[in-house]
Design brief:
Layout: E1 2-7, E2 28-32, E3 38-41, H1 46-58, E4 64-68, E5 92-96, H2 102-111, E6 128-132, E7 139-141, E8 144-151, E9 157-164, E10 167-172, H3 180-190, E11 195-199, H4 204-208, H5 219-229, E12 233-237, H6 245-258, E13 262-264, E14 270-274, E15 277-281
Parallel strand pairs: 3-4, 4-5, 5-6, 10-11, 11-12, 12-13
Antiparallel strand pairs: 1-2, 1-14, 2-3, 7-8, 8-9, 9-10, 14-15
Helix pairs in contact: 3-5
The chain binds zinc ion (2 copies).
One zinc ion is lined by residues 10-11, 73, 75-76, 174, 238.
Length: 317
């Protein structure tokens, strides 16, 4: 499968020069399975660019996707009104938000576009949107098996585990450690995963002090989970709006002191995950002036048994 990051920022979009290398759009991840089917994780502002890309690539053919929402905080739904494929009657989407009843989250999503919040009503979205609930999890989304567990976050959130193409990854954003029940459940969900995409909004020091109780986590807790659950690679995600590029660089470097297979999620980053092996697909820089080209050659491997310090994943320096 191919995992592409369209938004990696937490809380609010921050389109600023000082963080343009990691990017300012809020969470949205495209997961393309080897059979071509599409899963979208979260609908933050990054979803707008994903939509344009899907329309361009489809060339008029219908677009079908499974959409998995973690929760309904603004940073995870704000891309919905701007997602072009929702407006075409040729397209079909199956939308889920584990633990939420269908009526509840369908209404939430539609209310997002009522007067006076948005000039176009949800009824103008002519795509077939199937809101699902009440299923026996784990579920099948295209050819993937999807599991979930609730996370410790104000008003609730869930982590998803996606198993497909001989691999497994866990998407656990918006979560705070310290609740024994949630901590244990997330470790269970992550057991043996090849990749953990994890909320690393704060430093470990902030998490102990001024940001305690805010519902987010740090790279250190991500490493603890990776160790406890036998996760091979850790991707730091949901970067704080106040973290500029150099701040995130230093968080990644601190994390690599403890666990080599760490990278910071970056807009446009593409990871190929097949049979448990993770590689970064080389992408030309989207625009000039945002730092040097990614130094990761095609075929480099992000895995705990590789020597990261020789530069195999030196993608954030
Ligand atoms: Zn968030
Ligand atoms: Zn949240």
């Amino acid at each position: 499968m191919r995992i592409k990051f369209w938004g990696v920022r937490g809380s609010i979009a921050t389109p600023e020069r000082r963080n343009s290398r990691y990017g300012g759009n809020t969470p949205c991840i495209e997961v393309r399975l080897d059979d071509g089917s599409l899963i979208i994780l979260d609908c933050g502002t990054g979803m707008r660019a994903l939509g344009k890309s899907l329309v361009r690539d489809a060339g008029g053919a219908p677009i079908r996707a499974h959409v998995l929402l973690t929760h309904f905080h603004w940073d995870h739904i704000q891309g919905i009104p701007f997602f072009l494929p929702f407006y075409s009657p040729h397209n079909t989407f199956v939308i889920r938000a584990a633990t939420r009843r269908r009526q509840e989250f369908e209404a939430v999503i539609k209310r997002q576009m009522i007067y006076p919040f948005f000039p176009v009503g949800s009824e103008k979205m002519h795509a077939t949107r199937v809101f699902r609930d009440g299923e026996n999890w784990p579920i099948k989304a295209a050819s993937a098996i999807v599991k979930y567990t609730p996370l410790n976050h104000p008003q609730g959130c869930v982590a998803y585990r996606i198993e497909a193409d001989g691999s497994a990854f866990v998407y656990a954003t918006d979560t705070e450690p310290g609740s024994p029940e949630h901590d244990r459940a997330l470790r269970d969900l992550a057991t043996g995963a090849d990749v953990l995409i994890y909320d690393a909004q704060y430093t470990p020091e902030q998490l102990c002090r001024e940001k305690k109780g805010w519902g987010h986590s740090s790279w250190l807790e991500g490493i603890r989970i990776a160790h406890d659950s036998g996760v091979k690679s850790l991707i730091l995600f949901h970067h704080d709006p106040d973290s500029d590029d150099s701040t995130i660089d230093s968080l990644v470097e601190d994390a690599r002191e403890e666990f080599p297979a760490v990278a910071g999620a970056r807009e446009d980053m593409v990871l190929m995950l097949r049979n448990g092996v993770l590689r970064e697909e080389y992408q030309a820089p989207r625009r000039s002036g945002q730092g040097r080209a990614l130094p990761v050659p095609t075929g480099s491997v992000l895995a705990a048994d590789r020597v990261v310090r020789k530069g195999t994943i030196a993608l954030t320096r």
